[in-house]
Amino acid sequence: MLLHLFFLIFVGWQVFEYNGSTIVGMVGKNCFAIASDRRLGVNLQTVATDFQRIYKFHDKLLVGLSGLGTDAQTLYQRLVFRHKLYQLREERDMKPETFANLVSAVLYEKRFGPYFCQPVIAGLGDDDKPFICTMDSTWSSYFMYIGQNLELAKDCVVAGSASESLYGACEAFFKPDMEPDELFEVVSQALLASVDRDCLSGRGGHIYIVTPDDTKEKILKGRMD
Fold first, then answer.
1. For the chain, where are the E strands, in sequence order?
2. Taking Cα atoms as reference points, which of 69, 77, 67 lies closest to residue 117?
3. Half-sphere exposure of 139 (CA within 13 A, CB side)
4. pTM as predicted
């Protein structure tokens, strides 16, 4: 166990940035936005410019997975399996809060060989109230015991290699109770401003704007150098 913790502390953080990634979730007035960059790299080498990091589970629930690309795809497949079992058993879609606890439990199951992913969960709960949260997969095996591994937020959450610059951009642009169009502009400006300051992410953006009535998907063009 001590050897595992040593690996996570001194080596694990580099693995989270190996492929590069940037994800942000932000709430508005009865709506939310989740956005990611589109670059997949191997350190500073760009491999693809259309990599998918945001996954849709149902009309009111989306999840972004930052970190190691292969682990993100494996984790997504396991979450799809668990969510479909829930739909078959309960005959309804999973609420965002319930899904967040499911993700936490799946990460806890792999605590001795963790997925190098940091999920961003965004959805509309009861009365179409927006819900966003993230969690740290590295320490979820510990915080699971005390029920504090979920990082809930009322404004925005971020993940990925550009997190530091993204925090500042979101705090500067965010306003409460934004309408969908204004929320799209704010998320777009925050995402593009942050990835321009991170050499491990970028190549445009992929944005979802979700309201109680519909879901809009948009692609942003950004710097390609």
1. 22-27, 32-37, 40-42, 45-48, 54-58, 61-67, 117-124, 130-135, 150-153, 156-160, 205-210, 215-220
2. 67
3. 12
4. 0.87
Q: Which two tokens stand for residue 142?
A: 């510990």
pLDDT value at position 131? 94
Q: Residue 12: pLDDT above 60?
A: no
How many whole angstroms separate alpha carbon 55 and alpha carbon 113?
23
**20-220 CATH pick, 3.40.50.300, 3.30.559.10, 3.20.20.70, 3.60.20.10:** 3.60.20.10
**Cβ(31)–Cβ(130) below 8 Å:** yes
In 10 A of CB 105, how many CB atoms? 12
